[in-house]
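Example with several molecule types.
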Amino acid sequence: MTDSDIHICPHCGSDNLDVEHDYCETWLTSQDLPCSCGATLGPAATRSWNTTSYVTEWGPLQEDGVLYFEDSEEVEGDNDDAEVEIECQTCFDQAEESDWEPVEAEPVTFDPDEEKYRVVCRECEQEVPFEWDGRYINLLHEVKEEADQ
Ligand SMILES: [Zn+2]
Ligand SMILES: [Zn+2]
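Resulting C-alpha cells for the full complex:
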C-alpha cells in the first residue's frame, strides 16, 4: 500500500481530505447562595444545571492516519432547567445574581452515542468510507474493490 492509495477520494480522486470528529460534552454547574441572616449554617440555597456542548473538530487527514485536528467549533445546546434547593427563603428572596458563588465544577462527561468520526473530501464534499481502529484512520478503497470483484 502506498501513500496515494490511502489518501485519495474514491469519488473524485482528490487528495484534499479532512477528518472530522463530532462529540458532545455535558457538565454540571452548581452555585451556592450564602445565608447572610444566620437562619441556616449552610448555604441559603443551592442551584445546579446541566450544560451540553456539541463540538466539531477537524484537520487534514495525516499520511499515517493519526488524528490531527487544527480547528474546532463548539455549539452550546440548551441548558437544562436549574434545580434549586432553598434552605433560607429570606436570603433567597433578597439575593442578587452576583451573590451566587460557584461550587467546584463537576467533571465533564461524554456521551459515546454522540461521538462520530468522518472523513470528508473538500473537493466533492462527499464522505469517504474508512475504518477506525481506535488510533488510526484507514480508508477502505482496497476492501471496496475486492467486494466489487
Ligand atoms: Zn472527492
Ligand atoms: Zn438567610
